[in-house]
Amino acid sequence: MTSRRLALLLPLLPALGLAACANPGLDLPPLPDASRSSYRLGPEDQLRVTVFNDPRLTGEFRVTDAGTIALPLIGSIQAAGRTTAEVERAVEQSMRDKNLFRDPSAAVEVMTYRPVFVLGQVERGGQFPYQPGMTTLTAIAVAGGFNYRALRDYVSLTRVTEEGRAQEFRASRQALLQPGDVVTVFERRF
C-alpha cells in the first residue's frame, strides 16, 4: 500500500475500529411505550368460561390456532384479537341467537397465558409461562439469568403487532412483556 493511500485511511481507522466493537441491536427501533389497553387474546391462551345457571356450557377452553374457542351447544366463537369482555358479549349473543337463554350471563377469564420465549446469552433459554407484569429482566431471571457473555443493558424483543406481523425492537430491562413475546439477549463484544 502506498503511503498516500495509508494517509487517506488513517483518519478512518478509529471509526472502523469503533464499528467493529459496536454492540449488536443498537440499530433496532426502541420498543414503544406500553399502552394500558386491555389484553387481547391469542392462540394457546387457556380460558375459563362460566355461564350462569348452566354447567354444560361452563369449562376451560383453549384458543385454537384459528383463533376460536369451541363451546358445547354454541359452537365456535372468535376469541383471538378480542378482550375477555368482548368474548363474554359474543358468547351471550350466541346463546340469544340459538334461543338457549332469554337473558344469558357469561364470564370469561384467562387461566393460562401464551408463553414467552427467551433466547441468546442466558443460562437456560426456552419457553416460559407468562405472568402479568412480567418484564424482560424477570423473564431472563426465569431463564436462569444472564450468562458471562451477555450484553446486560438492553435486549431484542420480537412482538407480533396488531397487523399480525412480527417486529423486532430494542427493549430495556424494565420493558413490560406481553404473552408470545420473544426476548433475545445479545452477546457483548469485547
Automatic annotation (TrEMBL):
* Keyword terms: Signal
The residue ranges crossing the membrane are none
PROSITE patterns the UniProt entry points to: PROKAR_LIPOPROTEIN
Domain spans labelled Soluble ligand binding = 116-164
From which residue to which does the signal peptide run?
1-22
Q: Name one GO molecular function term.
A: polysaccharide transmembrane transporter activity
Residues in Polysaccharide export protein N-terminal domain copies: 34-110
Q: Which PANTHER family match?
A: POLYSACCHARIDE EXPORT PROTEIN GFCE-RELATED
Q: What is this protein called?
A: Polysaccharide export outer membrane protein
* Lineage of the species this protein comes from: Bacteria, Pseudomonadati, Pseudomonadota, Alphaproteobacteria, Acetobacterales
